[in-house]
Amino acid sequence: MAAYIFRRLLLMIPTLFGILLLNFIIIQAAPGGPVERAIAQLQGINANGNRLASDGSSVMNTHQEGRSARGLDPELIKRIEAQYGFDKPPVERFWLMIKQYARLDFGTSFYSDKTVWQLIKEKLPVSISIGLWTTLITYLVSIPLGIRKAVHHGSRFDVWSSTAITLGYAIPNFLFAILLIVLFAGGTYFDWFPLRGLTSTDFDQLSAWGKVKDYLWHITLPVLASVISSFATMTMLTKNSFLDEIHKQYVMTARAKGASEKRVLYGHVFRNAMLLVIAGLPAALIGIFFTGSMLVEVIFSLDGLGLLGFESVMNRDYPVVFGTLFIFTLIGLVLKLLSDITYVLIDPRIDFESRN
């Protein structure tokens, strides 16, 4: 197993390099980089390509072609390019970025004067809160529900529960978040939960128990909005895994020997059926922590990693874009390796080292 882990760690290096290279090429081809944005701001052109009047209102610019450099000193444009590192050819910029990343130096944001590490540390608690609670609730509900659906396959319970979780899966997270706000956050009916933030403004003055209640009070609606579409996939995966194992020969043999149904399910079937569920854990964690909560963060005014990634792409904040991409990809690869190790711990018959 040690040799397999070592090989997987070595494979992470070309994988990270390839992902960074591909995204670097795509980003370079995208119009509207930081240099163009800076030039447009100096010329008083807003994001829609309209020139700003002296009172701040937009005036249509009918001669937009060539506007990025018209009327500006070429020396000023060169200084702007040097400020953002675009005075060098793309190959050299990419090589310098790789050397920085090898030292875990991800640079400084173009617009906030903070390092990428500082920005991630600031946003990480929000995403961890939503991600951990979403994952915990999803697994605590979906696994027992999937097992019961497998045991009572075809029953009324199986039919109506499948209908309910399918409806939940069909509702997008952001739409369900808006519905929760309308119902419970002062939108139209009840004003039971706060609309924004992870804690109250007086959080530091609260007692220990008061801080716990305040945190749970704020996190309830965002977590509900995040988990609603997660139940279907995990529940049906658990159910189908158990159904597949229940009809195998070793289960029939255990029953023939007089083992109780609970012993058969949790002593024999559970270990084998959970392999597929564990296989999906790394992807689920990455999706929940870093991407799946972006719209929920926006709707509930939660300043987390999802919102950070979205804003960095929209603002062409390349250090943040590539820094977060590198970190998230590395975490995903490590989680996948941990998933393989967990495979072996659950089922020692699995031997990755024997693979060709």
Query: Reading side by side through the largest sheet, how are the strands ordered?
Result: 1-2
- State the oligomer: single chain
Ranges where pLDDT stays below 50 over 5 or more residues in a row are 46-70
Helix content: 55-70%
**Count of DSSP H/I helices:** 15
User: How large, in whole angstroms, is the Cα Rg?
Assistant: 26 Å
Q: Work out the strand percent.
A: under 5%
Provide the succession of SSEs.
HHEEHHHHHHHHHHHHH
Strands, count: 2
SSE class: mainly alpha
Main sheet attributes: strand count, strand direction, barrel closure: 2 strands, antiparallel
What is the mean pLDDT?
77
Describe this structure in words.
This protein is mostly helical and 356 residues long. Helix content is 68%, strand content 1%. The protein is built from 15 helices and two strands. It has helices at 2-29, 34-42, 74-83, 90-102, 116-151, 156-170, 173-184, 208-227, 230-246, 249-256, 261-279, 281-291, 294-299, 305-314, 318-346; strands at residues 51-52, 58-59. A hairpin with a 5-residue loop joins β1 (51-52) and β2. The chain is globular, with a radius of gyration of 26 Å. The two termini are 14 Å apart.
